[in-house]
């Protein structure tokens, strides 16, 4: 199996064909930057939370993953992302990175619900400090409905 999930994606595609399930990848060809901005605009939150999330998106998420399309995001991107804010001297505490990764996972979960992507690469239990460890993150409900 490929480490970037390509084999798993291909297997899922084949299984979906057999089950007559169709997934149109075209809606996923929007940049992470555009999707993050759209998600932030649609999200109801307090002013302080909104500022914190916008700052994280603009200062950390977009600079590292801005060229990625939603459909092109892989688990590896978030494994590397969780290490970068610490090693690059960005001054983010581990707890802050974990909290913001929960926000990113919630943002991408909305993309799954809206069928822009077929799975959430930020919601992988194997990501160091990832948002899911045996249960739902506290912001897993954010943006639904």
UniProtKB/TrEMBL annotation:
SUPFAM superfamilies (UniProt xref): DNA breaking-rejoining enzymes (SSF56349)
Biased composition, class Basic and acidic residues, residue ranges: 136-145
Key words of the record: DNA-binding
Residue span, Core-binding (CB) domain: 30-112
Top-level taxon: Bacteria
Keyword DNA-binding: yes
Gene Ontology terms, MF aspect: DNA binding
Coiled-coil ranges per UniProt: none
InterPro entries listed in its UniProt record: CB (IPR044068), DNA_brk_join_enz (IPR011010), Integrase_recombinase_N (IPR010998)
Renumbered residue ranges of the record's region Disordered: 124-145
Keyword Metal-binding appears in the UniProt entry: no
UniProt-recorded name of the protein: Core-binding (CB) domain-containing protein
Taxonomic source organism: Streptomyces typhae
């Amino acid at each position: 199996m490929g480490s970037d999930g390509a084999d798993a994606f291909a297997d899922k595609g084949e299984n979906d064909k057999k089950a007559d399930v169709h997934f149109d990848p075209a809606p996923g060809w929007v940049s992470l930057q555009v999707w993050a901005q759209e998600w932030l605009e649609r999200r109801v939150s307090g002013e302080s939370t909104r500022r914190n999330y916008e700052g994280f998106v603009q200062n950390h998420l977009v600079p590292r993953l801005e060229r990625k399309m939603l459909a092109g995001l892989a688990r590896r991107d978030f494994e590397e992302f969780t290490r970068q804010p610490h090693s690059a001297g960005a001054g983010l505490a581990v707890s802050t990175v974990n909290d913001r990764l929960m926000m990113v996972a919630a943002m991408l979960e909305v993309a799954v619900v809206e069928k822009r992507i077929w799975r959430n690469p930020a919601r992988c239990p194997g990501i160091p400090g990832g948002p899911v460890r045996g249960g739902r993150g506290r912001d897993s409900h954010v943006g639904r409905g």
